[in-house]
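Run log, item B.
One chain of 342 residues. Sequence copied directly from the ordering sheet:
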Amino acid sequence: MWNDLRKDLKFYRYYFKEFLLFSILQLLIVLAFQGSLNNLLIIIPLVLIINFSAIVYLAKKRRKELAEVESIINNIRNNQYDHPDEIILSENLSALEQAIKQMFIKSKNDIEYMRKLQRVRSEFIANVSHELRTPIFAIQGYIETLLNGAIDDSRVNKTFLEKAAHHTNNLSNLLNDLINISMIESGEMQMSFRYFDLAPYINSIIEEMKYLADEKNITLTVSSVRDGLQVFGDKERLKQVLINLIQNAIKYTEKGGVKIVVEEEKKFVTIRVKDTGIGIPEDQLGRIFERFYRVDKARSRAVGGTGLGLSIVKHIVEAHDSRVEVKSTVGVGSEFSFKLKK
């Protein structure tokens, strides 16, 4: 009891100015209506006692409320709560209770996000280490073999150098993709949005990629695009998207061809990249945009895939307020499409 009273009196000092001001105001009011100083010696102690009692009572109430809030905050800090409904304050602190619950929810979400981010980072580092190790070890192996005497063997030296060059190219592609996805996810990649003519843009990309299709004796074509049709976007980043999609389509198509289809709507233009390739199993369609995910790991590495291309495509298309749609049937082919604003 005495400890509580001592705490109340200690807390009361924070309201001492208010106590004096309120008491003086009351005395002035009494004097104004009384008009006499005869009873002043009785009134002054009475006013001071009443005000002191009221202030101590309010100080005690406020101290208990603050102790209640402090207890809740300490419990949150010590992870005592699993759900916001476990946080309960007095009825007169209902607004503060809601604010603390919102803080608790945000804090819990932030912690979960940080844990997820840490897991993603750990997986990313492990994947990067693995992906870098493959071409580096291959290059190292070919060079060591050449240095150990194979360089003088005309039957194998050129082959080994070509294979080393191939893995060097794969390593360069991987590093470029790592830089791109790092810039995208950190927000450092700048976008330059503007209107541009779609027909000459797509035709130039087709001409640039046609040699890949010719090497595999498959066709690479584009549907007719209306002259003067303009879309809104970042030309360089969208070129990266189309090159990635066309390259993938060519890599996984052994016969038939790849076709770019442009469909004009009222407010949007849909661009589709269709192939007659091996297709993607339905149960794996939801994962193909994950970093380093490959449907057929051995085949992807054999054709030089980094496992980051579709992840980059997804990020760039989403930066254009769009999304990549995928349709695929195993043994028939795949179709990737996205929309751009006109």
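Observations after the first pass:
- The mean pLDDT is 80.
- Residues 119-186 form a domain with the Helix Hairpins fold (CATH 1.10.287.130).
Flagged for discussion on Thursday.
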